[in-house]
């Protein structure tokens, strides 16, 4: 294949394929205007890869879930038995090969990754041949397929796979412009002048005047399709420079108009044939021919279109270019389009293609039609059963449009918005709701509309969404009326959103507590009712009075009998309630179970939330290495999900950064405060302020810490920010404000005595020791360390050693002080808590002599986060396939990372790896 002027692009594709032959994978989006040569470049790559898979987007399939993915992996379906069970089940349901519960998009994506990646041959044998996967006209893929393949593109690494996309320059999906975010892209522009002239000269038989050729090249912008078509259509005189050229030359939108003019020149029967082919793209030949007969057409009617090179082959044709199909369909009258859709619907009788029949009937409708609307509604539910929430939203939207009754139409529109929300098309959901007068809806539908609007606005980052989210959920709970189960779910959602917006929420905690109490019976049962009872009791009765009800709610959320789906839906509330209880063990167990559940079900957005909460939890406990694991996993996952840099701003962890106290930390955390305030994320705003106060304490800026913490707590009424009380006690005392320190410690005593947890009792004794006379202080410090030993809170125990050591130095007990400070420094340096480590070093330097326990970078810290994750799972006995499923990679990529781990650590087997990592962690 000769590609004029595309030497650089061809060389880039050759380089990707060469890299793939050595086991490296790559993905690339070729983006450009229609006719610029994207498909030609993709065909060039296909000619250089013997193991190729190709799928082209087809516009009529955009509303059928996983249609394109199914077509792409059909050659590999015979190998599906080697997939992990959960991935196999998800893929088979998505592709219509089996019945089952709606599959999670990311389990389907992982199954596609595993199939496309194949498996390596045993050690010592040659790797499998390069596999090229081509996705042309990606703008017309169904949304589920495009999201799945984009996920695959972002997770490829060491499989010898090249995944190429062809995408129109204006081809970003309006419902989600970021679907291919994170996948490398190359813009394909028009040909350079010399190459454009060479192409034009090559495609014509007559003599081409050089000046005229250059003019044509400029007029077309070097678009190869425009050049080729003009070369065939211009006369010898026009090409030779003796006859004027048409102006303007057909290019871009004018190219489509050019095709429309050629179509208009065809006989009426030929235009009908073309319209039938355009409306029925992807339809089997016998069915297309049957529909043609219903329209009174014969095969001979197709001949003029073939002669004019608008199409190739015989019906069903291949259109010369997608713009031809667009021009055919867009240029037809509404009546003509309805007629061909009606004919196509009449040829579909099997249940397996009932979705297509319903869609053609909808396109054939010339006004409201309840029968067709009801059929679309039923088919929408069938699409949802295959995990096609986008298709469900589209079917329900069209169903609403065809519904004669205004009330029923509004209800269907709300259902369409719910489906769009489930598909992640939050903007579409809001547009659908904007077309509904919510106050006129019946109660349950109004409740659904309010809940959908609340979640859609929150997910789009609308500040009013965060601010009004809880209020909308409370209104939804009231609208649900006697449906107390849905009403309780709405209030649980309100609790979560209010916790997120906190002081920036439009509703107060007492308002939510009142609604929660209304929905709680005399003997609360069921996880949601127990959550509401716990929230209402804690808000109304205070810390001591509310904790028993909160404890019962936590028991329900952590009950092993609770389903994975129910657990993940209540994770945020569960983590918050565990924090109120100071129950670190329960929180750790909840997060571990949620992580397992999210991985098992492929719920990657839920898994991202687990990692986010895990980072916050372990930072609070001072377990910064475990916080790093969650943070690194979250970063990898967000990259795989295609999260943009702007979206990632919300997922930063300023509290982890403040413990590390790197350069410029205060400026970056200050910027995060501004983002959180703008987005009405009051909870993150408060948490970040608490983190800055911790940094101030570490750097001995006690007055600043005290002032910040006084804005978070309400002295005399311990509430949510009980974690701030020991910080406030230390800051206030060191700032000379003994009265505030005593009040904070008294509140902390209420909390610790109510919950009875070792960490709470430990920090209480630590705070009391700060205030105690010398005769009592040492006993309190030792008791604090005893409470904090054996628990999960590395940070609080290290700080107890630090404070004890500082006290001992002031008591002139230098040897004892050095021992305590040395222990603290070892603990701080072990997790790279630089701010507290430096405070400890200063104390040691004041004692004189060398500073103990310098930080030594271990072999494990030399591993990348991905390598460290693979190493830990391999150490724990995971096979490559199990590690791949756990980390959402292919087995080949796991093998690649594991070989690098072996080389870095100097081991040759998993058994040696276990011993090496145990040495590093002891």
UniProtKB/TrEMBL annotation:
SMART domains for the chain: HTH_LUXR
Residues in HTH luxR-type domain copies: 856-921
Name of a matching Pfam family: AAA_16
Entry keyword annotation includes DNA-binding: yes
GO molecular function, one term: DNA binding
CDD domains on file: LuxR_C_like (cd06170)
GO BP term, pick one: regulation of DNA-templated transcription
Keywords associated with the record: DNA-binding, Transcription, Transcription regulation
Domain of life where this protein originates: Bacteria
Stored PANTHER family: DNA-BINDING TRANSCRIPTIONAL ACTIVATOR DEVR_DOSR
Name of this chain's protein: DNA-binding CsgD family transcriptional regulator
